[in-house]
């Protein structure tokens, strides 16, 4: 039976649902509380880890007894089949006649199984990395509406079937960006990861893709480009809560790259260049304003003392001659000639 969250969106394919971020974050809590109401603990959501050989019924007891007889009769060759070894980073989840045996997962080290009666699943507890494929996401400053499948544990096949059809997150005033990320996760409960979900790793990866799209689709573009740490933390919390019922622990989420369309890159580059040119013009205008003020003050000082103008003129001539020019052309100021004429007239009168 497929489980659904929220209401189906009009015009959406069958199985598409409108899901809010708080719902994603509370999936594990919802399923765990439901498990307590039904009489099982979080150690085995939907399963009973306290089953023993005495609960197998008459036929089960007979089969177990026959298996023990076969093991005893074929000793020591049966030891090659009955004893198994798992590594330090592995655990073995054992099923006896379809039921989980008491004691939970076995390992690390050696453990015993009954041939033809027991079967086991080997679970790797090491941290895995998953590169989330680039997601085409549309952004808006107001709000975003997205359609997702039900993400409740147990609806893995529904999620797998509909995710391929979800290509874009439709938003208002949207711009499409391509974002990819990397997710670090590990199996925290081997029993739950085997008994509660068909493929815990594949389900976690699909959930990571949909969570990335849903998280980025509700944020403006400038936040996607600048607040990557906040987005990573939000995704980590949502994924960790949703996969808790699958026995998965999401340790870290990192946004790797955010690629913009070529047209948008050109527009942003032109905007940045225009802003830089505007700042440069403002700085140049402020410099000219300060220089003009200094020149005005200098002209006032020179106007109060005519001799200062002559000294400035002679200083300029000295500077030009110091550059070793072969020919120097400069105008002869009338004021200087007037000074010499007056000096000659004064000398003539004295004579």
| Beta-strand content | 15-25%
Shape: rod-shaped
How many extended strands? 8
CATH architecture name of the domain at 128-262: 2-Layer Sandwich
State the low-pLDDT regions, or none.
1-45, 49-53, 139-173
Instruction: Please work out how many helical segments DSSP would assign.
Output: 12
Distance between the termini: 131 Å
Main sheet makeup: 3 strands, antiparallel
What are the secondary-structure elements, in order, as H or E?
A: HHHHEEEEEEHEHHHHEHHH
Task: Give the helices and strands, then pairings.
Layout lengths: L20 H5 L1 H12 L18 H17 L5 H4 E4 L3 E7 L2 E2 L8 E4 L5 E7 L3 E11 L17 H8 L12 E12 L2 H6 L4 H17 L4 H6 L1 H16 L4 E12 L2 H43 L1 H16 L12 H17 L1
Antiparallel strand pairs: 1-4, 2-3, 2-5, 6-7, 7-8
Helix pairs in contact: 5-7, 7-9, 10-11
